[in-house]
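Question thread 4412

I'm putting together a teaching handout and wanted feedback from people who do this every day. The idea is simple: show students a protein as raw sequence, then show them the structure tokens that encode its fold, then repeat with a second protein so they can compare. Below is the first pair exactly as I plan to print it.
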Amino acid sequence: MPTVTVLQGPRSVELKRALVNGITDAFVDTLGVPAASVQIWIQETPADSWGQGGVLTADK
């Protein structure tokens, strides 16, 4: 059973649905696994709780 963890900033429910669908389709198409076996965990972090290149994402 494939398990995918996505770490990202907050997104709308509509975008998360599309992401889960696309990731599931990729596993089904590539590995031939049943869609029901693909688990996807989305962990969202607010922009004031992560940074890149020495800059807090909220400050960009």
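The second pair follows. I'd like the answer to focus on this one:
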Amino acid sequence: MSSPFRSLGLALTLCCASLATSSLAYADQVRVFAAASLSDALDAAVERYQQQHPDVEVQTVYASSSTAARQIVGGAAADLFISADQQWMDWLGEQGETLGERGDLLANRLALIAPRDSTLEDFIPDAEHRLLPLLGDDERLAVGDPDHVPAGIYARQAFEHLGEWQELEPRLARADNVRGALALVEQGEVPLGVVYSTDAKASEGVRLIGLFPTDSHPPITYPIALVGDTPSAAAQALRAWLASADGLAVFEQYGFSAAVAE
């Protein structure tokens, strides 16, 4: 009959071995804060990267770029930040955060969408095709909040360019991020919404009505940067891979294009 102390010692040994195995499962960890519009594509890219680098654990946090930037300034641990516009990357640096290897990663387009069963004909939103007449008396147009969400900021710029901002502003259904605006259209809560073309492609519940002219708003680019004074080798390696041909190929499958270097 074994001693209870021997049994206890064996149990502790097995427990310690289990903990050691768990801690060694991932040699490195990289935390990525990214714009909500990247969720599907970045998840797929991370999955491919971890298949190639099984010793690295990549954790992703998605929110509007403004929320993600504020979370980082508020103390959230982040190794990489990918914003949906330059403004919030600039703001993060202005708050004293060290941004390393900053560069433009991806490009996107601004899209007008409707619920899947909408009978609205496709068109290009421009000065000859106004949006307000398409809304009923009590209907609204879904956008990311133009006060802070990049997709909403781009939408406001497009509306201003087309001369409709004053009329459309009180008719907006403002969402906390672009995926929130997409959901309002998917659920039929609104007849129209403005999101990125990649959001429209990712959803089976909406129809792409048309893309806004590229000259109606500034170029939609997604800057990427390492966060912190001493970025880890694992974070640097992931940042380099995301910008590589292999990484960009994943994003292109989801409708993004590589940012054009100026």
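Top answer:
Good format. For the second protein you could add a caption like this: The chain has a mean pLDDT of 91. The chain has two domains: 26-107+221-258, 110-211.
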